[in-house]
Amino acid sequence: MEKRKLFIYSRFLVYGAIFVFLYVLQCTPGFLEIMEVKPILLIPAAITLAMFEGEFIGGLYGAFAGLLCGLSSTMIYGFDAILLLAMTVAGGLLVIYLMRRTLITAYLLVFVAMLMRCSLAYFFGYGIWGFENGLSIFWRSTVWVILYSTLLTPLFFWMWKRVCGFF
Amino acid sequence: MGNFFKSVHFKILMAVLVVLVAFVLRAAYMGGLGTMSSYFLGLIVTPLQQVSSQVSYSVTGVLDTLFRAGEYKEENETLREEIRQLRQQLVDYETVKHENEQYRQFLELKDQNQDFQFELATVIGRSPDARFYSFTIDKGTIDGVALRDPVITADGLVGYISEVGPTYAQVITILDPTLHVGASDARTRDTGIVIGTVDLAQEGKCKLSYIDRESAVSRGDIVTTSGVGGIFPKGLMIGVVEQVQVESHGMSLYAVLEPVVDIPSVKDVLVITDFEGQNIGEDSEESSEESQESQESQESQADSQQSSQPEDGE
Q1: Per-residue pLDDT band at A86 (split at 50, 70, 90)
Q2: I want to staple A88 with a disulfide (CB 3.0 to 4.6 A). Which of A58, A142, B76, B274 is the partner?
Q3: Fold classification of A2-166 (topology level)
Q4: What per-residue confidence (pLDDT) applies to A59?
Q5: What range does the domain containing B76 cover?
Q6: How many of the other CB atoms lie within 10 Å of CB of B244?
């Protein structure tokens, strides 16, 4: 019985290791880079995990993913963590009370999360500084990061389905 | 749903939120120095990033050779053409003499700056939403790296340290509009401020602003740091003038610079952890404020049609 419990709880370590691994991949120069656009891997991963694990575990790992994102971000440290905590809790609750746990739902939640996070990051990183022609960055880079990251949703949906199923 | 807001889980999540808000406030207060959690996470992920970046560079190198053979061939032909043109230029003694003077000046840079303390670093991370090609390096406070230390390559200036943890540091580049570098034209000695713009950053370029309207700055001139302000040492190469144009307000000129360093793809850098005159004339904590003041003073100078020689470079 104890061994069974230990086995179940060990999944939290596995989740943590997966997030660290995804962060390293996300920041690796040139990895999955197309036309100078790289995907953010941690946000789809955190949102889809919340869909499987619920709002509590999802929220905690969302915050963890956000802290990792903050390491390499030019945003103030903790900004991503707060955002991802809120978005994963919301995502987890939506799947519990309102939506079904399907790939379409995952696409929708990840897209909305990416749109919110990247728009806020753009606003605080560029918008409020009033750079001349700053909006071009949104259309040239931010939009593609949102779409590219959303496109990878099935990978994480499938991965968490397998991992959660295993435990 | 109502049960959730009354549950222990909700209270725990709220506690986590409070901690995260505390992180944000502390990060804002520390102004670029990492928090305890960023230190801890940095210790874990930095070695992994070092491995991943090395693997990535190796794979990229092999793939690059395979897939870009045609491009290299074309580049080779272009370079051959340039060599032919350069050989023709060698015939012109005056040109050679002029170039020699310039090159000697930069070769002597190293001898003139024996006070530099360097720390070699590798680029280990480029975030998907990196601002103006900012990146993470694998050296931090335990290697002697500090906030606002200049970052260079053997070719010239890259940027400076904007955030530092024990084992990693964030670098913002000269393509970033928030970074202002006091600079001068190596030939004419005209001074100005190197800043980035959104449009030029897309092309990997930046501009030298607030040049005197009567200046003789022209295409091909080399721009170096002026050393005023104490953030960047004097004489570091920044870029080559590509074109000179009149600012929109018409009071001064600006020059589009092609940086001597290929910033979007730089892999190895040097951090100048100490040099003679570093932070002299200003408190390092106030330097960013002073950079803003410097820019404003330059703008007012330009507006009042006075000579636009900068008083404070960074």
Answers
A1: very high
A2: A58
A3: Arp2/3 complex 21 kDa subunit ARPC3 (1.10.1760)
A4: 92
A5: 32-314
A6: 17
